[in-house]
Amino acid sequence: MVRIKPYAAEHFEGVKALWEHVFPNDPMWNRAEFSIPKKLEVQPDLFLVAEDSGQVLGTVMAGYDGHRGWLYSVAVRPDAQRKGIGSSLLAEAERRLAALGCGKINLQIRAGNEAVTAFYRHHGYDVEDRVSMGKRFGSE
């Protein structure tokens, strides 16, 4: 039975393997060994895993800055997709963000990822006319 629960240290290897498989070209700063310790310092209750019999099947990281919520690292093992796990992770992240007073959630998808775009559209998300910009600090 799949359970959605907050991340714990025993999930690390499963999350790391999942992210390496699902996000193979992610930069170093998005890798588990860098991003998980940073997330555990800020709103760790918004880092969730989907687990079945000790196996990590999916993840979602969320954040809320008092103005907007954000979703990151939404991932489900390919052999566990289309079973409602991603939808359950998304629903729980949305519930937790709403409980904090969040009125809008943002997320970013890499251009051309039509399957993921369709998943979010199915859950009420729309593509917005925005330009995403970023600036990195330090050696990350």
Number of strands: 5
Tell me what portion of residues adopts beta-strand conformation: 15-25%
In total, how many domains does the architecture comprise?
1
Backbone structural class: alpha+beta
Tell me the series of helices and strands, N- to C-terminal: EHHEEEHEH
Summarize the amount of helix as a percent range: 25-40%
Which blocks of ≥5 consecutive residues have pLDDT under 50? none
- Number of helices, where a helix is a run of at least 4 consecutive DSSP H or I residues: 4
* Average pLDDT taken over every residue: 94
CATH superfamily: Gcn5-related N-acetyltransferase (GNAT)
Rg, alpha carbons: 15 Å
The separation of the N and C termini measures 38 Å
Shape: globular
Q: Class, according to the CATH hierarchy?
A: Alpha Beta
CATH architecture: 3-Layer(aba) Sandwich
The neighbouring-strand order within the major sheet is 1-2-3-4-5
The CATH topology is given as: Aminopeptidase
**Can you summarize the main beta sheet?**
5 strands, mixed
Organism: Sandaracinobacter neustonicus
Enzyme class: transferase
EC number: 2.3.1.-
Pfam families: Acetyltransf_1
